[in-house]
Every structure is written in C-alpha cells, then in structure tokens.
Design goal:
- Helix 1 packs parallel to helix 6.
- 64% of the residues lie in helices and 5% in strands.
- The chain has 517 residues and is mainly alpha-helical.
C-alpha cells in the first residue's frame, strides 16, 4: 500500500510539471496569436490608406497557407483542433510523435489563428498540453496507463491555460475526452490545470479570455425566455454540426488544389471581411467583449446587425475549420452563442417583453447553451461560463438553457461533435497483431449497462481480456467467476497493449451504452 501511495505522489508531481510546462507553452501560444493579430490588423489599416498594401497582405496570407498547410501535409494530425486525436490517444487507438506535433501545432496555430480567421486557440492548446504530458511521461519512462493519466493532465492544463479556467479544463477532459471520472485522472488533471493557470496568470500576465459584467439576477417569471432560447440554440447548434460535416464532403470534391492547400480558400475569403468588418474577425473574444457596450443602444437595426454577424460567423467558421488548418472551434462556438443571445434579447426588448438590462444575461446563458448543444458537454459549459463570469447568481438559468439546448439536439439525433470527428479518423486495429505487453482499460458501469447484475462468467468478454479488479465504493475487489457486476462499478481490465482500442470498442457494444457521451 505504501508503494502504491508513493506511485500516486510521483504521478501527482509529474502532473504538476506538465501543468507548469503547458502553462508556459500555451502562454507563449496566446501571446504569439495576439502579436500576430495586431500585425494583420495594422496591415489592413494601412491598406485603407494605400491599396498597394494589399500586395503585402496577399503574399503574407499565401505564405501562411503554404507553411501551415505544409505542416499538415507532413503530419495530418497537426490540422484541426487536435481534440479528436487526444480522444483516440486516450482510448489507445492512436499513437502520435509528441515533439513533431508540438512545435508544428504551436507555430502553425499562431500563424493561422492570428490572421483573423474565425478559428480559436483552445482546441490546439489542449493538444499542445497533451503532447507535453506525453513527452513528460516518456522522460519519466511511465507505463501506458500512467502515460494516459499525464496525457489527460496535459490536456486539462492546455485548456485551462487557454481559457484561464482550471476547473473547466479538468472537467472537459473528464466529461468529453476521457469519459471517466476516475479519481486518479481527476486529481492529476486538476493539479495540472491549476499549475498552468498560475503560470499564465502570473508570469505572462494573461487573464481569462472572456470576462463579461453581470449585475442583475434573471427573474423567475421570465424563465419562459430561457425555454425558447434553449430551443433556438439547440436547433442552430444542430444546424452548425450538419453544416460542418456537410462542407467536408464538398472540400473532398475540390481537385484544383491538393488537400493540404485548402487553407488558401478561407484565407482568400478573409481579405474582404477583414477590410470591411475587422471587429467580427478572429476567434471572437473581442466581439463578445464589445457586446455589452453595443446593446446599450437597442434598436431594430442592431438586432439585424447581430443577426447578420451570426450568419457570417457560422458560414465562415465552417469554411475555415473544414479547410484542415491547425486551429479550433471552441471560442468561435461561444461567440456564435453570444450573438444568438444578443440578437434574441434585443428582439425581445424591441417587442417590450424584456428589460434591456437583462440582455447581457441572455448573452451569457446562450454561450453555455450553444456550447452544450454542439460539444455535448453541459457540465463543462456551465462551469466554464461560471468561471469566466465569476458569479454563481446565474447558475440556475444557465443550467436551464444548457440542458434545453442539449435535449433539442439529442431529439434531433445529434451526437458529440468531437466524437464524430474522432470516429471519422479512426482506423481499425488488426486482431492478430499482439504485442505481448500488458495494458489497462478502466471503464465505468452505468445504471443502464447490459453488464449490470451479471456475473463475470456470464459475460462474453473480448479476446485477450482479463477482469483484473473491480472498484466499488472505494474498495478494490479481486473478482472470480461468481462476482456480480453492479451499477457504479469501475472495471479495471488487463488487455494486450496493441489491442486496447479494439477492446474499448468491443466493450462499448457489450455494455449497450455509449461511452462517448
């Protein structure tokens, strides 16, 4: 037992190291994006004075597309947000060279996101953190099980540093990436997230990317607005996912350019948007922070303007992300949610159905609702917005909007977006290729699992799988054939390292429930 406690302390210390390094790397990442963003805004301002500056702009954006696209050509998993890759790594279905991914994602992300495309740094930050976790695990020569713990700690650290929200960083990894509230993963993810947030806040001086003023409670008699808003967010969130996966098929039919140069398409479209509407460009945090001032002058024209901003952002966000550039959609999703909330709130003000002072409340609630509908991580959405706003007064209405939006998407047959992206890139493992190296798979048993109330011997376990232990009520049970599985149990399976992904997939079918949220 003493040996086990020492092992836990070692992992905790290593998670702390991961958090500190991730905070430094993601702090540099955010700083680089901010500098690059200022550079491009400066160029476009000069273009207003002298059109010859467009020559420099076109050449510069072409170079950005060429360099970042070349990185993706070398390592395809550098493209996109990186969250689907981390999900597959946690399941044992994907193995990546951490250093090759790390530096290309860092440079490519700074170049791409800083241009003003409707893309965010949070997904790439999560992958940067997970790569650091993988690297630290390799340096300490950890086994595969502990490597995944440090990978999860790194992912939480990266997201925490990106948003300045350590609880949300840890919770997102558990709710959407790892799908398991394992105490060891939770503790190490949280310590890494806190450490990375400390580094970003105190060394780089960076604050949470969103900090909206919130001064009024939303009265109960107006909760009917939350139901309508939740339905709208669920419908529009579902539409966003349909558009995202639909445009991927269109991109695949483009033969004029090789796939690694698809990024040149959104970069070309960006030029007129950046020239005429610089406020709405970029990840969206500047636009969100400008909304409180904008909504003080409520008018029908402002309702139309916010609606137009939303249409532009949803269309161009999809075009930008589907091009495969290294970037994410986290913050763009929150931005679209804020625009929906602002548009709805101002419409109700014009109709005399809502006090103007409560529009900011709906903006805040809508960010959580849109996030919950698309990402399908409602608890993360609630905690994230709570951390960013810094108040618990809005917790109940926030939860109402988030769960109504989630329910609408679920009724429409929606699935978690990162789960779909991960499934699209998943490659089956050959059953016959056994490595002879033991690994662990830890799975929760849900209330509606088909394993419940069955004994070990009654279950047809996947090949080369041994039920090593069962964690029940903080006790460790060594099972035999007569041991009955109960709801809430955590199964610790011993599998061949090369077959962990296959066993994970087989266990999903065996349980009869979705382990992917």
């Amino acid at each position: 037992m003493e040996k086990e406690e020492k092992s836990k302390l070692k992992i905790l210390f290593q998670a702390l190291i991961v958090g500190v390094i991730a905070g430094a790397i993601v702090g540099l990442f955010r700083f680089g994006i901010e500098l690059t963003s200022q550079f491009w805004l400066g160029l476009f301002q000069k273009a207003h004075q002298n059109l010859w500056w467009f020559v420099a702009i076109i050449l510069g954006l072409f170079l950005v597309g060429l360099i970042s696209g070349f990185f993706v050509k070398q390592y395809p998993h550098v493209g996109g947000s990186g969250i689907p890759e981390v999900k597959l790594q946690m399941q044992g279905k994907l193995h990546l060279p951490w250093w090759s991914i790390l530096w290309r994602k860092l440079i490519g992300g700074i170049l791409v996101i800083g241009t003003g495309l409707f893309l965010g740094p949070e997904g790439p930050s999560l992958q940067l953190g997970s790569s650091i976790g993988q690297g630290v695990a390799g340096a300490f020569k950890q086994n595969k099980s502990n490597t995944r713990i440090l990978l999860a700690a790194g992912a939480a650290s990266g997201l925490s540093a990106a948003f300045g929200a350590p609880l949300s960083g840890a919770l997102f990894v558990l709710e959407e990436v790892f799908h398991n509230f394992s105490p060891s993963v939770w503790m190490n993810a949280l310590i890494g997230a806190i450490a990375s947030d400390f580094v970003v806040s105190n060394i780089f001086g960076q604050k949470p990317s969103l900090a909206l003023p919130y001064n009024h409670m939303f009265p109960t008699y107006l909760y009917w607005h939350l139901l309508i808003l939740g339905i709208i967010l669920g419908l529009l969130g579902h539409l966003y996912k349909k558009g995202l996966f639909g445009l991927k098929k269109i991109y695949a039919k483009i033969h004029i350019l090789p796939s690694w140069l698809y990024g040149l398409i959104p970069l070309a479209i960006l030029i007129p948007i950046m020239y005429y509407l610089p406020l709405i460009t970029g990840p969206g945090n500047h636009l969100i922070l400008s909304l409180p001032k904008m909504i003080t002058a409520s008018s029908w024209s402002l309702v139309g303007m916010l609606g137009a901003y939303y249409i532009i952002r949803i269309a161009f966000s999809i075009v930008s992300y589907d091009s495969g550039l290294p970037s994410g959609i986290f913050l763009p999703i929150l931005t679209m949610g804020a625009l929906i909330g602002g548009c709805y709130g101002l419409l109700m003000v014009q109709l005399g159905l809502l006090p103007e002072k409560l529009v900011i409340n709906l903006i805040i609630f809508s960010m959580a609702g849109y996030f919950a509908a698309i990402i399908r991580a409602p608890f993360t959405a609630i905690v994230l917005i709570t951390e960013m706003v810094g108040s618990l007064l809005h917790l109940m209405p926030l939860a109402v909007v988030a769960f109504v939006a989630l329910l609408v998407d679920q009724l429409l047959g929606g699935r978690p977006i990162y789960g779909q992206l991960a499934a699209a890139m998943e490659k089956p493992q050959a059953d016959h290729q056994l490595s002879g190296e033991a690994d662990q798979l830890v799975l929760p048993v849900y209330e509606n699992s088909q394993l419940v109330d069955k004994t070990i011997r009654e279950i047809s376990w996947p090949k080369n799988t041994l039920v090593k232990t069962i964690q029940r009520d903080n006790e460790m049970i060594i099972p035999d054939g007569k041991t009955k599985i109960l709801p809430g149990d955590i199964l610790v399976l011993e599998v061949d390292a090369s077959q962990r992904g296959n066993v994970y997939t087989a266990m999903k079918k065996l349980q009869g429930v979705e382990l992917d949220g």
